[in-house]
Amino acid sequence: MDLISVSAGYLVIVFFLGLVYLCLGAYWFIEAAISISLRFEVPKLLVGSIIMSLATTSPELMVSVISVLKGQVGLALGNVFGSFVANIGLVLGVAGLIRPIKVSYIIIHRQIPFMIAALMVLVISSLGPYIEMWEVVAMLAGLVGWLIWLVCNVQGDEGIPDMSLDCAWWVTVVWFVMGVASMQWGSGLIIASAESLALVFGVKPYVVGLTVVAVGTSLPELASGVYGAIRGESSLVLGNVLGANVLLLLLVLPVIFLTSSTHVVLSDKLFDYLFMGLTSVFLWLFSMGFDQEWEINRYEAVIMLSVFGVYQFLLLR
């Protein structure tokens, strides 16, 4: 879609239209994923960590792949790094304001440390001249190992999601297909409009990816986070966010590296790594709790939202 010659106002409309398609597609996709999980009685933490996170990360994956194929690697990388910070600072911040988020032992001692370890591996890999193939393979291997560990170690006593299953199997299939198609169409609109807006306002595509596109593609996580907080489903909320961030690091980034026609250099992304690490450490500390309650309370949620706000301000100033 060629939007280079149209007005900025029209580009904004196209961008938000793309977000509507993207979020609608993500909603259908999430409904299909949860429906499948209920049929097979999958525990809550697995639903959030694998099924819902795969569904809610699909917009980031779609946007990133289309961006790379169009030669906008910076936009794809910005989308990944910005979404990582938004998932913790924005999504958990808003969810924690609605209701304090209870944190289980496995999340504190296994899930969060693994996410931080994956981030540290990325930072170390970025110190080289470019990301090499063996590093991509190592990331994908880490993802497979994480998925196998989750399936083998998360016990059924986490409980099955408290949701009703009142649809036929063919409805689930329709939701799934419509969700994928809608997300693909929405991603195309977002990329085309964001690319043109960057040219109109003289903003680097990487910054557009870190801010507007990242927040836009994190809306499915935000929607599921708000829904889960209202329902008091802390395992779903945290599992979704942590799972999505692991997928961003160990699935979406490797896909970007593999589809890019040129070597991807990350040695200049230390500013973004700083905030990715800061939000991750805050999440770990708040989860353990200075009050020994193992929950993210409203005061801590405000701090996480503030860190996200500072990050966005520094990017756009």
TrEMBL record:
Keyword Cytoplasm found: no
Main location (coarse class): membrane
InterPro entries assigned: K/Na/Ca-exchanger (IPR004481), NaCa_Exmemb (IPR004837), NCX_ion-bd_dom_sf (IPR044880)
Topology in the lipid bilayer: Multi-pass membrane protein
Sodium/calcium exchanger membrane region domain sequence ranges: 11-149, 173-315
Alphabetized UniProt keyword annotations: Membrane, Transmembrane, Transmembrane helix
A Pfam family annotated for this UniProt entry: Na_Ca_ex
TM regions (residue ranges): 6-30, 42-69, 81-100, 112-131, 137-155, 167-186, 206-230, 237-258, 270-287, 299-316
Superkingdom of origin: Bacteria
Subcellular location: Membrane
PANTHER family: INNER MEMBRANE PROTEIN YRBG (PTHR10846:SF8), SODIUM/POTASSIUM/CALCIUM EXCHANGER (PTHR10846)
Protein name per UniProt: Sodium:calcium antiporter
UniProt lineage: Bacteria, Pseudomonadati, Pseudomonadota, Gammaproteobacteria, Candidatus Comchoanobacterales
